[in-house]
Amino acid sequence: MYRYDEFDRRFLEERVAQYRGQVARRLNGQLTEEEFRPLRLRNGLYLQLHAYMLRVSIPYGTLSAEQVRMLAHVARKYDRGYGHFTTRQNIQYNWIKLDETPDLLADLATVEMHGIQTSGNCIRNITSDPFAGVAIDEIEDPRPYCEIIRQWSTLHPEFSWLPRKFKIAVSAALQDRAAVHVHDIGLYLKRSEAGEVGFEVLVGGGLGRTPIVGKVLRDFIPVRHLLSYLEAILRVYNAYGRRDNIYKARIKILVQALGVEKMRDAVEAEWAAMDHTPLDLAEETVAAIVRQFAPPAYAAAGADDEAALAASVEADADFARWVRHNVFPHKQPGYAVVTISLKPLGRPPGDASAEQLDLIADLSETHGFSEVRVTHEQNLVLPDVRRGDLAALYRALAAAGLGASNIGLASDIIACPGLDYCSLANARSIPVAERLGEHLAAREEEIGPMKIKISGCINACGHHHVGHIGILGVDKNGEEFYQITVGGSADENAAIGGIVGKAVPSEGVNGAVDKLLDVYMRLREDGEELPATYRRVGAEPFKEAVYGAV
Amino acid sequence: MVLYKNGAVVTDPWRHLEDDEDLPQVGPVTISWKRWLSERGSIARDPAELGVRAPNTVTAAEIGADAHRFGLIALFFPNFGDGRAFSQARVLRSRFGFTGELRATGSVLRDLLQFMQRCGIDAFEVSPRAIEENWFAALSEFDLFYQPAADNRPWIARQRLGATP
Amino acid sequence: MTTGSTYQAVTANRLRDGVTVYFTALGAWSTAIGDAAHAEDATDLLAAAAAQPLEAVGAYVIAVEKADRGLRPVGLREQIRAFGPTV
Ligand code: SF4
């Protein structure tokens, strides 16, 4: 993984010193709240219902063991002993005190971490495939390019005060595990016919109030020109994006208003007019970063590994279930990719305690190369586990309450913090997720792959629009109601779910979801996931099941 | 208001004309962009004595086409969050080679100064509180940058290819 | 909404640590809703609270009602702010 050099380290020290000064100026009254707010947001600090909330950046979801231990330390020293992983591969702490944040950020800086640009109207954390570098269906590891974009976007002097936040995702695999279609810019790594590495560029995807699937802006931009092309897009957006209405300020609205052809013309014209040379990436620059992501020294598969694994699967039904759902193929023979579920039944989705984080850091050393990944589905990944070690790993995880075997199933629910923490919320998300997960667990294997996503308001941090089943909290005269959508998808066949009818009260959610699942299971054809069934049969059968004849 | 340029607080040599004020025979003056558009055919003035105050809704290309006629272009930041003038500044410097004064006006706050400077702004119109609170220290808060901008300072990706620090 | 037993109080988050606080009759901030000054109309309370920008952030008026033991906010959002997350 990428390790900081002298430049990165000194830069981060300068950033912490700057922030320390900003907090001091706020506390002594030189800065008003209005002036301070955009400054703290650019370091990831929000003011929520009960306290400040700090969002720590996890660039493209990759962490070292040392960094995971630091996240545990922060949870213990500055919070209440736990953290919450988000749908953008970051971690949030819910009980932070403003006057302690400069020290907190200084602690993070010792392990090359920060909260820079995890909030505010700037270029946010670059997200990517949690299986990057180990996936079997990958063209090339996308993380070096994420790192190049991360560095370029850090404190960009021209694009730090955009009309609205700006999210970039990069994927390099056939299966899209980074939701690139619902980002402001989505980049698909590919090779030209001449073998040159570059990207297909999607623009204008996003969720929120106006969910839109991104459109292709350019078929191929070579890596060399990646940054100048991104600058051209950002410059067009900075000049023409709407600033009069916060709900119409994302680039997707600009693309919608202009049409993708005019948007393309504007970007191409800007790109043609600018001098690329200062931003063109020299081959050595790219190569030096690519080298940092070189594959680790894998060992040859042990002769007895497979036999031992098969025996453990045979002997232990719980382990067998975990292998079925939480273990994924690795491109290196003898290794597996393991997803650790942060969705145990009846617990807030995506939460991890300091003790669990410490354990995961240890396990990433005993079973891997000291690396941990965060998924946008709020789980963690150990990317390099020897297949012969899976049983031992499972026992260690299960003993710490981390043995849930539900990845990709109905109880692997994505949920935002909702009204229990978030000041923008209309309704709670976490209790709905907890109840629904417990309710569906018994038949989740029978249901099969199922993505349920819950947001506490239209900002859609829980990605409800792209859930196979999406649940959106709404407020009706002070009562919590939930609007249900069906058929959404965030993968390479991205689709926005359709609303099935009027919102249901909190206690009606489980029943409504049951009915939708019954319809799906009755009508699905071989191996079909819910979005495919929905595309084939339409919305009517689903509506009818929940609301009667329509 | 206080004007800061070249490392010092200076008195503003420019007169800023209302649209109905006549252009004086001599002396540096600025006019609004609107007035420039309607009178540019008839204004023949040494660029050293002509400046324009541009709103942030005009494209940089439009201003840039006339930039050689001005000795000063004043850009406007209506509030903390509206960053359009950063792009205007950078394009005026980098693409149109504007070498006159680029002045930041409006909501010019401490924590924006170094961003502005990197985009090519070299004069800052700020509230007097800037002096008491030592805002200009912010111009050197960072000495390492991750991207090229209009200030021609080296960026980290280039520095890495050179010597180690 | 000042009918019957519903009153108004003023709440905010404390600048230093973000904790939920209520404006008291003594013109200070308290973390306990029971200490909140309440009135039919909290306009004056809000003005007094806003004069202390260094103590608390974003003061606003909420509806409260008398409960068995002191005051209780009306509405789930303010109840969660007053008594903590439900999970
Ligand atoms: S979706 Fe709404 S309630 Fe949920 S975290 Fe985002 S802003 Fe808060």
Explain this structure:
The complex is a heterotrimer of chains A (550), B (165) and C (87). Chain A is α+β, with helices and mostly antiparallel strands. In chain A, 37% of the residues lie in helices and 18% in strands. In chain A, strands 16, 17, 18, 19, 20 and 21 form a six-stranded mixed sheet that branches. In chain A, strand 11 and strand 12 form a beta hairpin. Chain B has a single domain (2-160), classed as TIM Barrel. In chain B, helix 2 (60-66) packs parallel to helix 3 (84-94). Chain C has one domain. Chain C has helices at 43-50, 76-83, and strands at 6-14, 20-23, 29-30, 56-67, 70-73. The N and C termini of chain C lie far apart (30 Å). The mean pLDDT of chain C is 91. The A-C interface holds A 26-27, 29, 32-33, 47-52, 96-99, 348, 419-421, 425, 428, 430-431, 434, 478, 480 and C 13, 15-20, 53-54, 57-58, 75-77, 80-81, 84-87. The site of iron/sulfur cluster (SF4) has 13 residues of chain A, from loops.
Largest interface: A-B, 45 and 39 residues
Present as ligands are: iron/sulfur cluster
Radius of gyration of chain B: 17 Å
Tertiary shape of chain C:
globular
Structure class of chain B: alpha/beta
Question: What percentage of residues of chain C falls in helices of 4 or more residues?
Answer: 10-25%
Instruction: Tell me the number of strands of chain B.
Output: 8
Give the gist of this structure:
The complex is a heterotrimer of chains A (550), B (165) and C (87). Helices cover 37% and strands 18% of the residues of chain A.
Write the layout of secondary structure elements.
The complex is a heterotrimer of chains A (550), B (165) and C (87).
Chain A lengths: L5 H22 L5 H9 L3 E3 L4 E5 L5 E3 H14 L3 E4 L5 E6 L4 H9 L17 E2 L14 H11 L14 E4 L13 E7 L5 E7 L11 E8 L3 H15 L10 H8 L1 H14 L9 H10 L12 H11 L1 H10 E3 L5 E6 L10 E3 H13 L4 E4 L5 E7 L3 H10 L14 E2 L14 H11 L3 H4 L4 E4 L13 E8 L2 E8 L11 E2 L4 E2 L3 H15 L6 H8 L2 H8 L3
Parallel strand pairs in A: 6-7, 7-8, 16-17, 17-18
Antiparallel strand pairs in A: 1-2, 2-5, 3-14, 4-5, 4-13, 8-9, 9-10, 11-12, 12-15, 14-15, 18-19, 19-20, 19-21
Helix pairs in contact in A: 1-2, 1-4, 3-4, 3-12, 5-9, 6-8, 7-8, 10-11, 16-18
Chain B lengths: L1 E4 L2 E3 L4 E2 L12 E4 H7 L10 E5 L5 H7 L5 E6 L6 H11 L6 E6 L6 H6 L4 E4 L2 H4 L23 H6 L4
Parallel strand pairs in B: 3-4, 4-5, 5-6, 6-7, 7-8
Antiparallel strand pairs in B: 1-2, 1-8
Chain C lengths: L5 E9 L5 E4 L5 E2 L12 H8 L5 E12 L2 E4 L2 H8 L4
Antiparallel strand pairs in C: 1-2, 1-4, 2-3, 4-5
